[in-house]
Design goal:
The complex is a heterodimer of chains A (356) and B (386). Chain A is α+β, with helices and mostly antiparallel strands. Chain A has eleven helices and eight strands. The longest helix of chain A has 38 residues. Classes of the chains: A alpha+beta (356), B alpha+beta (386).
Chain lengths: 356, 386
């Protein structure tokens, strides 16, 4: 029994934090959010060179052959930095299905390809010669405007299956939506007889979707822990330096106890998120429950951390110029994805209490 | 990172589990507190059995009669005790607080005299720290410790002392000097509870039962050799006692919460399975339990690496106490007016008692307010609030 990271894993975290702090200081967030693309494309090959996009990809495909615990460290650090590229989409949402196409895995590991998951029962797949064609529309696809390819969960002749559609510049198939978190935008993807390749037919597709969901929930919990830690640090910093009535406001318990609660919730969220990460890495029987618990708890903890820190900052925390609202918006994005905490608790209750 | 037991831990757990199945006395199964003489008599016998089987002082050094095992074994022990709904050793104050303090600060003759009898439950210890005027502000204690000839004389009043009514010895923090800094005038003694001038009065609490006591000391003579540390050096010794209170304390708390959540799930299944609001609240409590459990595992990894408990101990106590209050309240809400009827020993009586008892959880062993101050000041580095 040892719930701690290895020295190599600690080193990965140190490397990630120092790279991200230099490359994406908080001052750059506004610039990135306001940019047309909403991210810094040049950063993707850098992430690949650091070994992050291929962390869990087998060495035979150019990856590092590590596991979800290493990816978990990267997710948390990217959450801290509010990274605006499609790492979550590629590594959490697309990678499990891409494992059916080793040539694509190699491209992800090398940084040549990013991808996301587009789910929609209204997309239909039909056979066309050796390949497949997709037709239909999916909504709320994360990072749709940034990625090079789409893993599409679509209706095939035998039921819901997984297909891969590469982005085709000739077709304006993506409409990027004006998203509250401008550093992680949703898009609407329209497939008009788009060429595709079959990744997994039913029933294998359902298994891949279930494992993708676990990874996504855990990844978001880890990102949420990063966001919450950063919001807490901003709150503490402000409470130490801002003086009113002749004392730093952090000396008042009405302020300090709010921050203490944020610390407690962030640490509990971290414990749940690491637990979920380990369960997924080890394919443990508790992985589903752990991922649900971690996402439900950590997302709410991150939202609450940001809300308390906004309050601690007073009027300044309410302004557009202060970076706090960007953390808050990421936390809200995370909380909303794959439904809110209440829905996940309902699933947990189902497992504990049986049918309602 | 590996959350599974290693082969030796797994073997220890399996042996302990089998041992518990065979040895927990029927009268102590589903244990809910040391209330009444019958429970205490069973408790002494139970504690002796635990000691004889080698389960007392798991983390104590072998030279003092302990098992000299790493902290993780204490964690497994507490988890398995909770799983079996069996009580801990009656001498928790001796094992968890007085003993480690004597190991850290005691002289060889003190170690020889006290430690084995703590393990064997031959001597039960209590703690004389809090006073009517000194709760959260422990350093303000006023019980007087005077040097008179070749001994100390103690006068004063202590309160909230568990086990004092059955205890043989007391670790006492008193004031030996009134001038100077308040932390520097404190002295730490071992007091024989059978000494003339010691009077114990049980404190009847909100549940109607008495787990705690007041202790009155009137001209109690204490031999010089009962001093722990130095005259005026009591604060440092007391800090050792309190840090040990937080060592694997989290595992005992998570164990208790585990029992409570299991019972809550059973209750909700039986009586409120279809109520969406109840379902949401049960799921929340289950999640909080997991959060506490895995925070304990992280704390354990740190404790084993550094030897010092981290801030997670305060986190665990704070969250456990609040979780236990919410959870027991939910249980009596599910039961309805029946939970307001005190007789019987079924689920309503159990939850009625637990809910009232839980109100003490956010007060005993550090109030939630003090724990939040500790986190704010020592962990987050915020300025002192006073």
């Amino acid at each position: 029994m040892d719930f701690s990271f290895s020295p190599e894993q600690d080193q990965l975290r140190t490397q990630a934090r120092s790279f991200l702090e230099k490359r994406f200081p908080a001052a750059r967030l506004a610039e990135i959010a306001a940019s047309k693309d909403g991210w810094d494309r040049a950063s993707w090959p850098e992430l690949a060179r650091l070994g992050w996009t291929g962390a869990s990809i087998p060495e035979a495909q150019g990856g590092a052959g590590l596991g979800f615990v290493e990816e978990a460290i990267v997710f948390e650090e990217l959450g801290r930095a509010l990274y605006a590229g499609p790492y979550f989409s590629t590594v959490a949402l697309a990678l499990p299905a891409l494992a059916c196409a080793p040539d694509f895995l190699a491209r992800v590991a090398s940084g040549a390809l990013s991808a996301t998951l587009a789910s929609g029962p209204s997309v239909e797949a039909r056979r066309a010669g050796d390949g497949w064609r997709l037709r239909g529309e999916t909504d709320l696809v994360p990072d749709a405007g940034s990625v090079d390819a789409f893993v599409v969960h679509a209706r095939g002749p035998d039921g819901m299956a997984l297909y891969l559609a590469e982005r085709d510049d000739a077709q304006p198939l993506v409409r990027v939506l004006d998203t509250v978190d401008a550093t992680r935008r949703f898009g609407r993807v329209h497939f008009e007889d788009h060429e595709a390749r079959l990744l997994a037919a039913p029933p294998a597709a359902a298994k891949i979707i279930a494992s993708t969901r676990r990874r996504a929930l855990a990844a978001l919990a880890l990102e949420a822990v990063g966001v919450a830690s950063c919001a807490l640090a901003l709150g503490v910093e402000h409470a130490k330096s801002r003086e009113q009535f002749g004392r730093p406001i952090g000396a008042y318990q009405a302020v300090s106890h709010k921050l203490a609660d944020t610390y407690v919730e962030t640490e509990l969220a971290r414990s749940l998120a690491y637990w979920a990460a380990w369960c997924i890495a080890e394919d443990d029987g508790e992985a589903d429950m752990a991922a649900l618990a971690a996402k439900a708890y950590a997302a709410e903890a991150a939202v609450a951390a940001c809300e308390r820190t906004i309050q601690v900052h007073g009027g300044m925390g309410f302004t557009w110029d202060h970076p706090l609202h960007r953390y808050y918006k990421r936390a809200l994005w995370i909380e909303s994805f794959d439904r809110s905490g209440a829905a996940h608790r309902a699933e947990i209750a189902q497992a504990l209490l049986g049918g309602s | 990172m590996d959350l599974r037991d290693g082969p030796e831990e797994a073997a220890f757990r399996a042996t302990l589990r089998t041992w518990l199945e065979a040895n927990v006395p029927a009268g102590l199964r589903g244990f809910r507190g040391w209330n009444g003489a019958a429970a205490l008599a069973l408790g002494r016998d139970w504690s002796k059995r635990l000691a004889a089987a080698g389960y007392a002082g798991l983390t104590w050094p072998k030279e003092y009669g302990g098992a000299g095992k790493p902290w993780r074994y204490q964690a497994v022990y507490l988890e398995e005790l909770a799983r079996a709904e069996a009580p801990q050793h009656l001498g928790v104050i001796g094992l968890g607080m007085a003993g480690p303090t004597i190991i850290a600060h005691g002289r060889p003759d003190q170690k020889a005299r006290y430690l084995t009898k703590i393990l064997s439950a031959e001597e039960i210890w209590c703690q004389g720290f809090s006073e009517p005027g000194s709760g959260s502000d422990l350093a303000s204690v006023r019980t007087r410790v005077e040097v008179v000839g070749d001994r100390f004389v103690v006068n004063g009043q202590k309160v909230w002392s568990s086990f004092a009514h059955i205890a043989d010895r007391c670790i006492l923090l008193g004031r030996s000097a009134t001038a100077g800094e308040k932390h520097e005038g404190l002295t730490y003694l071992v007091v024989d509870m059978k000494s003339p001038g010691v009077e114990v009065r049980p404190l009847r609490q909100i549940t109607g039962e008495a787990e705690f006591n007041e202790i009155f000391f009137t001209d109690v003579a204490v031999p010089k050799e009962n001093l722990l540390g130095e005259v005026g050096g009591g604060w440092r010794v007391a800090m050792t006692t309190l840090s040990h209170e937080r060592g694997t304390f989290g595992f005992a708390l998570a164990g208790a919460l585990d029992v409570a959540v299991r019972r809550l799930v059973a209750l909700a299944r039986e009586r409120a399975g279809g109520d969406a609001l109840v379902r949401d609240r049960v799921a929340r409590e289950w999640i909080d339990l997991q959060a506490l459990r895995y925070t304990n595992y992280r704390a354990l990894a740190r404790l084993e690496r550094t030897g010092a408990p981290g801030p997670e101990g305060s986190v665990a106590k704070l969250r456990w106490s609040e979780a236990n209050q919410r959870l027991t309240k939910l249980a009596i809400e599910i039961i309805g007016p029946e939970a307001q009827v005190a007789d019987g020993d079924g689920a309503p009586a159990y939850w009625r008692y637990q809910q009232l008892r839980s109100r003490g959880n956010t007060i005993e062993a550090g109030t939630s307010e003090v724990l939040r101050n500790i986190i704010a000041e020592r962990v987050l580095g915020l300025p002192r609030s006073r």
